[in-house]
Amino acid sequence: MNQVFLESHNLKNKFSGFGQFNYHLIKALSKQDLGDLDITLNVKDVAQLKAEFGTTFNYKKYKSITRHKPFRIKKKYDLWHCLNQNIKIEPFYNIPYLLTVHDIHFVSEGSQGLQEKLRGQFEKKLQRATAITYISEFAKKDTHAHFEVPKVPEFVIYNGNTITDITIPAGFEIKTPTKRPYLFSIGDFSERKNFKSLVAMLRHLPDYDLILAGNNNTLYGESLRSMLSEQGLNDRVFLTGKIGDTEKHYYFKNCEAFVFPSLREGFGIPPIEAMRFGKPVFLSNNTSLPEIGGEQSFYWDHYDPEYMATVVQQGLETFYAHQNDYETWYIARAKRFNWDETAKEYIKVYHTILK
User: d(Cα 293, Cα 82) in Å, to the nearest integer?
Assistant: First the structure.
């Protein structure tokens, strides 16, 4: 048996972007024929994972001390899979090493000192890698634009869509913050998500409200709340905070459109989730979003509020003029991003390295 170690400790934050990637990849791997692969998960809550996946995997208790070189994990696995580019936990020995790159937004975000620190850590990972997987063509292109990438096998493997069942449980009730038609978006409240541009846009869309979901207990969230008060939009823009899956599905199902003006995305799962509900999708025309959104999504080339509103108005008119065609296309595209297929592609990469 080939011993494969998945550095998956981000499962401790299951609803973060990395946590979602880890969980859905592992869940999909559990449904595959693993053959000669004996996979170990590095997780904080062993009991919870074991209750769900049983003996499909082995489990190693995550300990933060293993971030430090003298205390690194010393077992010589046949393959070590680093599930994202920010992980500080590394193998003790020089063993085959697969690096998955989601994005390199750290090259332009944060202080110069932090950027230099993260660049140094990432460069070490690149030089250690036996092979590299990227979650989008953009992530690969961007990495090559900013770093000297070693001549090792490289693969682009798209993430899957986390939403496969769009039914809302019978009896589920939610007290919606508005009875008016609303636009919806979801994500962590940070400069990169660019939610303020949506608030500014809303002044030019008087017939719509805006619902923003996600962790808003951030400096950006505080600044956005101040913006709402200053512009008198507290009765039209609603911040839900973190929401569960059923609540998220409800907002997707009942929104007029999904709006995602992110400045930088390595992949961008929320637009795919919205497509599964057949909803019109409005995206920034940058980084990976055109690659993920495809030709039937609607795009902003810049963030002038009146221009953004015009794109939404015209896009909705186009969508409703051909609603059946658009809904069919969106749903079919969302189904193309499948975690089972993603898991199969990673298994192929494992075998490529192990050979």
Answer: 27
**CA distances (Å), origin 329, targets 48, 183, 186, 255, 341:** 38, 20, 22, 18, 20
Closest CA to 289 of 257, 264, 307, 312: 264
Angle between helices 269-276 and 245-254 (to 10 degrees): 60
Give me the amino acid identity at 303: Y
How do residues 15-27 score in pLDDT, each as one tens digit? 778 888 999 999 9
Structure tokens at 60: 């190693």
- Catalogue the E-assigned strands of the chain: 2-7, 37-43, 58-61, 79-82, 97-101, 131-134, 154-156, 182-186, 209-213, 237-241, 257-260, 281-284, 298-300
Q: How confident is the model at residue 232 (pLDDT cuts 50, 70, 90)?
A: very high
The percent of residues in the chain predicted with pLDDT above 90, rounded, is 88
With cut-offs at 50, 70 and 90, classify the pLDDT of residue 121: very high
CA angle 343, 82, 243 (to 5 degrees): 70
Task: Quote the pTM value.
Answer: 0.91
- End-to-end CA separation in angstroms for the chain: 13
